[in-house]
């Protein structure tokens, strides 16, 4: 099966065009600009990943700070209540498991009890 000369020439031209197309595609993929763009995109992705990790850590730290601030406020409130009681001359006989007074006595009554037991 032999092809006519015009068809053979067309096939040769098509082969040349296909080969040139392949070479152009290869050059386009391997341009210095394309390689630089790929490197910059990779750096950008890495930076975004790092930023996401930092944001997660920041959120965790903010939650811990809020928890500590809540604890501090609670302790400050308890301390303030005890200072008021102390300033009024009362002393605590004991605290229950929650840090609340179980009994209160006038400081003079405690001193009287101590004086009697001596």
Q: What is the secondary structure topology, with strand pairs?
A:
Elements: H1 5-29, H2 32-87, E1 90-95, E2 101-106, H3 107-117
Antiparallel strand pairs: 1-2
Structure description:
With 118 residues, the protein is mainly α. It has two domains: 5-88; 89-118, no CATH class. Helix content is 78%, strand content 10%. It has helices at 5-29, 32-87, 107-117; strands spanning 90-95, 101-106. It has a two-stranded antiparallel sheet. The N and C termini lie far apart (133 Å). Residues 105-118 have low confidence and may be disordered.
Concise structural overview:
The chain has helices at residues 5-29, 32-87, 107-117; strands at residues 90-95, 101-106.
Strand order of the biggest β-sheet: 1-2
Q: What is the string of helix and strand elements? A: HHEEH
Strand content: 5-15%
Q: How much helical structure, as a percent, in the residues?
A: over 70%
Distance, first to last CA: 133 Å
| Biggest β-sheet strands, sense, barrel | 2 strands, antiparallel
User: For the residues shown, what is the average pLDDT?
Assistant: 81
- Number of helix segments? 3
Count structural domains: 2
Shape: rod-shaped
Provide the low-confidence segments as ranges.
Answer: 105-118
Supply the helix-strand structural class.
mainly alpha
Radius of gyration of CA atoms, rounded to a whole number = 43 Å
Number of strands: 2
């Amino acid at each position: 099966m032999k092809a006519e000369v015009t068809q053979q020439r067309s096939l040769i031209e098509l082969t040349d065009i296909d080969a040139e197309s392949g070479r152009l595609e290869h050059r386009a993929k391997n341009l210095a600009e394309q390689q630089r763009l790929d490197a910059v995109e990779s750096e950008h992705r890495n930076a975004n990943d790092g930023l996401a990790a930092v944001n997660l850590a920041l959120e965790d730290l903010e939650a811990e700070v809020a928890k500590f601030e809540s604890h501090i406020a609670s302790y400050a409130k308890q301390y303030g209540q005890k200072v008021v009681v102390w300033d009024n001359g009362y002393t605590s006989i004991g605290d229950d498991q929650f840090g609340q007074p179980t009994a209160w006595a006038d400081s003079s009554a405690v001193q009287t009890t101590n004086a009697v037991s001596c």
